[in-house]
């Protein structure tokens, strides 16, 4: 028995080792297939909601009609972890075309050659990404000048507010600066016992969508310097952001109180979202929230506006955080030319982009689509279309280590929020050191 | 009469058994070959390639390149997850495994003693073990929700402010331990089998000697079931080193980041307190494309698993008294 145990132990650990090391794959970057030949492409995407799945399926059907030689096998609901694994493994069941919601991972996809370089395809099709796509969306789909992805619709972040709660509190318009915002938050907040009956806004980094990255755009944070080194200790915008957030958290009763309240709230993607239930009066969120709120049949009216900016940046009011879905071709695909036809259609065909944007309530990612008269005219939605076009709107820079630097900063910021780390300079210095070490390892 | 020289006859005599021995060895190898092939394919090859990749920069897309000890230095000095994960794993190995063994044995003892309803209680305690880990963990996060969970609501009614459970770094591991104790059915069944196997005569002899309940347990039950206790501890230690699903699901559900908008999740919520070594391997190898560093962590885990198993086995002479 003892020997067997040893072998079991060794075998068990070896299995983990096997998993950790089981990596094969091709780095073949050639596109030699005939796009006019009969072929079947495999397209992986992450959408799961029936309306979204139906909308993408309709777009694919329209593509198949326009390209009768290409059939598309659509696989829904794929997460990034599964995509990463399939991209490495390759093979006949691996995807040819991949979409991902994690725009922060573009740097990792590009630098590792997981996605094929799209420049030759774009050049051949005479598509200039800078002129075709919205500028910020064109920017976050490349890394260090290498374009390995294109945007497939975008997400713009702004402020949703409960109009009834505003009226009840005597607030006539949404706040434009953060000092106005703080006052509005406190006005809207109603305490109950040691908790809240209604919270004006959930500022905690643990709240839904209230992450460092999403706040960062309002402050104009420069996460990395020109050399790609972490810049947070030197950037006054980072300090201003951490201070503002911490002050608001403390004014509302502290991190522990907010966290306890947070754990009592409904799921972000369900109908019991705290903004839907009225437990939170304002919410930083993407354009999809408008449709989710409409679907939830709320008993109050909602409004939308850009998220406020720091008082000294009021001229930039209207900007927001941008993100979206990215589309790329697996480097392991043997059908890159055919795959490009699908990528080109989904990402640049104006009718395809507009109909998909309308169906899933996302912001269009091309200049033509955003001007289209067919685009949804709902004023709440249009607020986000405007945010997407604002020249100050931004996404965090791409990094060889994906979004790891943002998670590290969020981790440190959370310590500051909780008060377990009080020395901000030391905290940000540690963050820079850690990010640089991680990037060096990944680079 | 044979005229074969003496030397040649002796040679033939020696050759015959040698051929027989070779045939026997071949036959033995033939019988062993399924195991040998399995060992080579599923153990030796992965182990050697893990060692190889631990010295390489390898992302799974491009050819590996030699980086010497860089991955080792990164994991042991600079990776923010490795040491917290190791500390958590050790905590769970000491506290969770011990409590599971004690609890499993306690429940087993109780159920072997009761006269009526033993079948019902046996089923009651075993059923949670059959619950899928993801569902069981999600249920526990719900039960222990600090804001709306029934446990804290109940504590509230008797004037006790419940802890934050999975949302508090000092309570997250105890919460995982409670979940592990709930799923103690596997150990209960094993201990029950062992307890029922203890010769009744030994208890009768102990009774005649005037032994009380504690003496009977200490000097009769425990020596008889000690091989099973050792088995449970070794299995528990190995399982804890591979502990992945429960802490990951608990952290994701409690933090509220369950995916959907491309929001990334850092494992170990809250404050890396639920981070375990397999999560670090997964994070490095499959999320950060850093196979080299993941292999380093896998090797450390391998060495630790071997060391703990060897340590426990070395102690067996004092432990397996029933076999002595």
From TrEMBL, chain A:
One of its GO terms (cellular component) is cell envelope. It is found in: Cell envelope. InterPro entries: Bact_solute-bd_prot1 (IPR050490), SBP (IPR006059). Keywords: Signal, Transport. Pfam families: SBP_bac_8. Residues 1-22 form the signal peptide. Part of a binding-protein-dependent transport system for a sugar. Belongs to the bacterial solute-binding protein 1 family. This is Probable sugar-binding periplasmic protein. The lineage of its organism: Bacteria, Bacillati, Actinomycetota, Actinomycetes, Kitasatosporales.
Automatic annotation (TrEMBL), chain B:
It is a multi-pass membrane protein. Its main location: membrane. Keywords: Cell membrane, Membrane, Transmembrane, Transmembrane helix, Transport. PROSITE patterns: ABC_TM1 (PS50928). It is found in: Cell membrane. InterPro entries: ABC_transporter_permease (IPR051393), MetI-like (IPR000515), MetI-like_sf (IPR035906). The chain crosses the membrane at residues 28-48, 90-112, 124-144, 176-198, 219-244, 291-313. It comes from the Bacteria. Belongs to the binding-protein-dependent transport system permease family. SUPFAM superfamilies: MalF N-terminal region-like, MetI-like. Residues 86-312 form the ABC transmembrane type-1 domain. This is Sugar ABC transporter permease.
